[in-house]
Amino acid sequence: MHRASASRPRRTAGALATAALGAAAVVVAAPGWFGLAGQPPFVWAVPFRVPLGLGLATVAGAVGLVGLRRRGALPAAAAVAAVAVASLTATAHRGLSAGELPPARDGDLTVVASNVLHARADRGAVASLVADTGAQVVSLPEATRAYAEDVAARVEAASGRRLQVFFAADGGEGREGTALLVAAELGEYRQTDDFAGSPTAVTTAVPVDGDGPPLAAVHTSAPVPELLGEWSREVPAVAQWCAGHPGALVAGDFNATLDHPGLGLPGGCVDAGASTGTGARGTWPVDVPALLGATIDHALADGSAWSAVGTVVREVPGTDHRALVARWRPVP
């Protein structure tokens, strides 16, 4: 009786430890389930899904080593390991590939999004990416108007295709902002001021003639402590713009992943990367392997009008972001 009575507290302690570690692992792996993904410190950890999963696996291994001496620790190790496996499996399902583009068909639209890091990215490389992929829509966050016009001129020289240039400066003033380049084959466009007054630049344009889609080139505030309020408003506003404009195409640096609350993708808005196998491929920063990075550059579209048929994630010299290329096909 004495031994049985003494073992009960140990079993209870072991059960409590297992439950606590398992619950903590779930919160770390999926803070969005608890409404925490947009709150510090989770807002900064959420983008790095693979490192988080590997970190949980490491914790499970360490607890398992303790379990070799104290068997009561083994259930806790198993619980954390299960969460790690589930998290990594979900990440892999979203897509870690560098991707590929199928041949373009009539009616397809190709979009390039490349944060050019204060206009420092190699202009020739950006222009070559646009020309080689036949992109009709180009989003260039952290550009200047002169930079965007130079890229457009280089594309025209290389391919003969003319690109209209639209530009919105950060905060409505200054030299740096977000450029939107639109191929003349889509018809004439005019710029709108849907996001006027935003701390960072979102450039929107709609067709004046022709049947081109509404377009937005995106750069939201970063979720740094002093800008969390702006970030939490801007990201969902852009997602709502996508959902609220039939046929819309949206691309750029969202400073958010699909796990952040702002990119819940309302309505029929869909993410090209998640649809085609690059949805967890890191686009930032380039000084870590893509599998360990954060997927904060996106191409979105009205899913009732467009279906993503391919994406690729490419490196561009001179910037800290990888470029994203998405090919969209009209929904029959």
Describe the structure.
The protein is of the alpha+beta class. The chain has helices at residues 2-29, 42-45, 49-67, 74-94, 123-133, 145-159, 228-244, 272-276; strands spanning 99-100, 109-113, 137-144, 163-169, 176-183, 189-192, 202-207, 215-219, 249-253, 269-271, 297-302, 306-314, 323-330. The protein folds into 2 domains: 2-94, no CATH class; 102-330, Deoxyribonuclease I, Chain A. 36% of the residues lie in helices and 23% in strands. The strands form 2 sheets. A 7-stranded mixed beta sheet has the order 1-12-13-2-3-5-4. A hairpin with a 6-residue loop joins strand 4 and strand 5 (176-183). Helix 1 (2-29) packs parallel to helix 4 and helix 3 (49-67) runs antiparallel to helix 4 (74-94). The longest helix is centred in the first third of the chain and has 28 residues, at 2-29. It starts with a helix and ends with a strand.
Give the structure's gist in a few sentences:
With 332 residues, the chain is an alpha+beta fold. The protein has helices at 2-29, 42-45, 49-67, 74-94, 123-133, 145-159, 228-244, 272-276; strands spanning 99-100, 109-113, 137-144, 163-169, 176-183, 189-192, 202-207, 215-219, 249-253, 269-271, 297-302, 306-314, 323-330.
Share of residues in strands: 15-25%
Give the biggest sheet. 7 strands, mixed
Give the second-level CATH assignment, the architecture of the largest domain: 4-Layer Sandwich
- Tally of strands: 13
Shape: elongated
Order of SSEs, N→C? HHHHEEHEHEEEEEHEEHEEE
CATH homologous superfamily placement of the largest domain: Endonuclease/exonuclease/phosphatase
Q: Mean pLDDT, rounded to whole units? A: 90
- The rounded distance between the terminal residues' Cα atoms is 74 Å
Return the structural class. Answer: alpha+beta
Unreliably modeled segments:
1-6
Number of helices: 8
CATH class division of the largest domain: Alpha Beta
Give the neighbour order of strands across the main sheet. 1-12-13-2-3-5-4
- Helicity, in percent? 25-40%
Q: What is the radius of gyration computed over CA atoms, rounded to a whole number of angstroms?
A: 23 Å
What's the number of structural domains?
2
The name CATH uses for the topology of the largest domain is Deoxyribonuclease I, Chain A
